[in-house]
């Protein structure tokens, strides 16, 4: 059950950010990116277990709760159930077919945003291009 929410959370976040295609991200952020890359390179051997940073599976308990909240505020449950096919596939079936990887999460997020059919049959999923304001506003 948590696997489903771990998969749906990144999809919801990508939908909320609209793929980072905003004009705000095109400003003078090159130096900030360079600093972040440098910091990551210097701290690649840092022990993150002390604060449990980066040691939990994607999402963790908080991510699962946030994913549930995002899905409850959307119309996902109109067509999808956790463990049984309704109009669209069950969340468990989606999680089984697409293991959690960056490529799969990106592809599924794009599918949620743009909608369409063909992955699970001929019934089209409506596009969901709107912005979820929950996690993006904080």
From TrEMBL:
Annotated residues for binding of heme c: 76, 80, 125
Keyword Metal-binding: yes
InterPro entries hit by this protein: Cyt_c-like_dom, Cyt_c-like_dom_sf, Cyt_c_ID
Post-translational modifications: Binds 1 heme c group covalently per subunit.
Keyword terms, alphabetized: Electron transport, Heme, Iron, Metal-binding, Transport
Chain ranges of the Cytochrome c domain: 62-138
Molecular-function GO term, any one: heme binding
Residue span of region Disordered: 47-66
Protein name: Cytochrome c
């Amino acid at each position: 059950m948590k696997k489903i929410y771990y998969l749906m959370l990144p999809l919801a976040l990508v939908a909320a950010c609209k793929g980072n295609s905003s004009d705000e991200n095109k400003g003078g952020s090159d130096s900030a990116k360079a600093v972040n890359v440098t910091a990551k390179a210097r701290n690649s051997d840092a022990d993150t277990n002390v604060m449990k940073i980066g040691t939990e599976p994607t999402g963790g308990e908080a991510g699962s709760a946030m994913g549930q909240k995002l899905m409850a505020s959307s119309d996902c449950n109109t067509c999808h159930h956790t463990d049984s096919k309704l109009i669209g596939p069950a969340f468990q079936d989606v999680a089984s077919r697409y293991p959690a990887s960056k490529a799969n999460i990106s592809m599924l997020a794009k599918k949620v945003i743009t909608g369409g059919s063909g992955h699970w049959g001929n019934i089209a999923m409506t596009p969901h291009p709107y912005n979820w304001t929950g996690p993006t506003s904080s």
